[in-house]
Each structure stands twice: as C-alpha cells, then as structure tokens.
Amino acid sequence: MEDLRRHHAQMLAALDELEQLTQSPSCDDKVVTAVRYRLTRASSARRREVVALCERLIAAGVNDPALQALRDATNISRGTSSSHIGTWTLRRILADWPGYVRASNAMRATLRREVAREVAVLTPHFAEAM
After folding, report:
1. How far apart are the first and last CA of the chain?
2. Which end of the chain has fewer surrounding CB within 10 Å, N or C?
3. Domain boundaries defined on the chain
4. Prediction pTM value
5. DSSP sequence for 19-63
6. Which residues have CB under 8 Å from 50's CB, separation 6+?
7. pLDDT at 95
8. pLDDT digits (tens, 9 = 90+) for 81-94
9. Cβ-count burial of 65 within 10 angstroms (0-12 exposed, 13-18 middle, 19+ buried)?
10. How far apart are CA 89 and CA 104, in angstroms?
C-alpha cells in the first residue's frame, strides 16, 4: 500500500502542476510535456499497483465486490487515458490550447475521482489483510 500512496502523491502533484499550467493563456510546451510525462508514469504505476493489490486481496479470500469492480474499472480507465494522450498530442495541444485546457480539466477530475475511489476501497483492507 505504501507504493500506491507514493504513486498517488506523485500523480496528485502532477495534476496540481498541470492545473496551474492550464490557467495560462498559452502553452509552455516543454513544461507541459514534462508534466504529462511524469503524470503518465505515475498513473501507469498506480494502475498496475491497484490491480495487483486487488488481485492479492481477492486471492487471499477477501469477499468485497468493490475490489473486483475497482480492478475492472482500473483496467478500463487505462484505455480512457491512452485515448486522451493519443488525441491530445503536443502538436494538437499547441494548435488548440483552449480545447486542451477543457479536455485536461475533465481528465484531471476523472483521475482525482479514481484516486479517491482507490483510497476508499483499498485502505480499509490493509490493517486486516496485509
């Protein structure tokens, strides 16, 4: 669970930084690229950890339907994130900064909800199961 907490912290820091960047009237392409890279790495590591923790708890006999739902939602969200990244290439971001700002706002809100759900579902299990 400590790895997941670290990934969450890295993600939330990158989300905060991206939020600040998107308040600018124009794109600082080098900084946006660096923040998106850090966010993608942290988010990918977080997703792998969430799936592993859910599977570990399920294999240990924890009977909580929220675990399987979280694991399945985590696998699905990978596609959503990949689609966002594929759609919003640096070239497109530079061509349509206001559009990217709107899309980024929506994606950041989604990622924050995912982090909150992961914490809510997984945290209660670790005192007893690990």
Report:
1. 9
2. C
3. 2-129
4. 0.90
5. HHHTTSSS--HHHHHHHHHHHHHHHHHHHHHHHHHHHHHHHTT--
6. 4, 70, 71, 74, 118, 122
7. 97
8. 999 999 999 999 99
9. exposed
10. 12
